[in-house]
Design brief:
It is a single chain. The chain is an alpha/beta fold and 373 residues long. It has two domains: 2-169, no CATH class; 189-372, Trna Endonuclease, Chain: A, domain 1 (3-Layer(aba) Sandwich), CATH 3.40.1350.10. Helix content is 51%, strand content 14%. The protein has helices spanning 2-49, 58-69, 78-91, 115-119, 129-138, 141-150, 154-167, 171-179, 182-185, 193-196, 200-209, 230-239, 241-248, 295-310, 330-337, 366-372; strands spanning 213-216, 252-263, 266-276, 281-291, 320-327, 344-351. A six-stranded mixed sheet has the order 1-6-5-4-3-2. The chain is elongated, with a radius of gyration of 25 Å.
């Protein structure tokens, strides 16, 4: 009976995987078809509206008439049709479509010339044209609209497309990372990873896992000296830990705050302790309400040594430390981290009161976060 049950379990696993893979392929094909349709409609709208042959309210009229012709039709509001035009005009030189017969719109994805990417005068980063085209078709139209509205260069757009596709970003996560300028800030953290992490691939992953600056716009606290006390800042982060993890990025798991260690019968407490699955390493974060000071790294070096000896598991990599402070002088940081022995970096943060009003509502509210996380 037990053997038969095991056989059934294996059958269920195989069938379930087949169903999920089929659903994924169907969704991917549908999304590719939809993007190609929008691209082709955008081309048609662009060619006719930009020449001045249509009136100023033509798109609004077309949208209204479409709703009358196809009751319940979604995705064809006037603003979304204009988005289709933007979509086409932004990508027409990168993703060319063969000309359809006169008076027709050809939405088929097969009409997109994949080979043209490789020889385009603006090749995509890394020479992975076909892979990038696949990623391009795997994210939704609303994601594309957000990227086109905020990212200017081809390289930046490709960066966000790849991250959306590979990390399964929601629209809200994409908006947050666009607002916090992830493209510009990722990989620029002042650090000593080259001298403290011997594995080259792990060096690269560590650099990509941290940002130079973190947007903590869900923290809006005042104190008598106009700067939050470090414990108050820590408390606000812990109260908003899901949002803070969104700020950090994927693969971070929260272990605890004021993490207690005993060294030679003395207690020591790390402000925030995380574990990163990609790096397979503990990540200690120390919060500082003011400017960076060189002595901060000496204390962090001690914490990391203790973590490696007392907490780290045998299969895990060396612990990494991040000093998260209000501000820093780049040259002072570079001199300080140069000869330290443990992997560390120094980042800064911005809270709500440091941001212009238009940037203070980047993250979704609590209910939306529950759905996302």
């Amino acid at each position: 009976m037990g053997k038969m049950t095991n056989n059934y379990s294996e059958a269920i696993r195989i069938i379930k995987n087949a169903i999920l893979k089929s659903r994924y392929r169907a969704a991917a094909i549908a999304n590719k078809e939809l993007l190609s349709l929008y691209y082709s409609i955008g081309k048609y709208i662009s060619e006719n509206s930009r020449k001045g042959t249509w009136g100023t309210s033509a798109i609004e009229t077309i949208s209204e008439k479409l709703q009358q012709e196809l009751p319940g039709l979604r995705g064809f509001s006037a603003s979304n049709i204009k988005n289709m035009r933007v979509f086409y005009e932004a990508w027409q030189e990168i993703y060319p479509i063969r000309q359809p017969p006169a008076g027709e719109i050809t939405p088929s994805p097969q009409e997109i010339d994949i080979q043209a990417l490789a020889s385009n005068r603006q090749p995509l980063a890394g020479g992975l044209a076909k892979k990038q085209l696949k990623l391009f078709f795997s994210i939704g139209f609303t994601h594309h609209c957000e990227i086109l509205a905020k990212a200017q260069s081809l390289e930046e757009r490709v960066f966000y497309i790849e991250r959306c596709a590979m990390d399964f970003w929601s629209k809200e996560t994409l908006r947050y990372n666009l607002k916090s300028s992830l493209y510009e800030k990722q990989g620029k953290l002042p650090n000593n990873f080259k001298t403290t992490i011997s594995d080259k691939e792990l060096q690269r992953k560590a650099l990509q896992a941290f940002k130079d600056e973190y947007l903590l716009d869900y923290i809006n606290i005042e104190s008598p000296d106009d700067e939050p006390d470090e414990r108050v800042l820590e408390s606000e982060i812990v109260c908003n830990i899901r949002k803070f993890i969104m700020s950090l990025g994927k693969d971070f798991s929260f272990i605890g705050n004021q993490y207690r260690m005993i060294v030679e019968n003395q207690e020591y407490f790390i402000d925030l302790l995380f574990f990163n699955r990609q790096l397979q390493a503990l990540v200690a974060i120390e919060l500082k309400s003011g400017a960076f000071k060189p002595e901060y790294l000496g204390k962090m070096n001690f914490y990391l040594s203790a973590l490696d000896d007392l907490v780290r598991l045998p299969h895990e990599n060396s612990s990494i430390g991040i000093i998260l402070c209000k501000s820093k002088n780049q040259r002072i940081v570079e001199y300080t981290v140069r000869d330290t022995t443990k992997p560390m970096g120094v980042a800064t943060y911005k809270t709500a009161k440091n941001l212009p009003p238009k940037y203070r509502a980047v993250l979704p509210d609590a209910e939306q976060l529950k759905e996302l996380l």
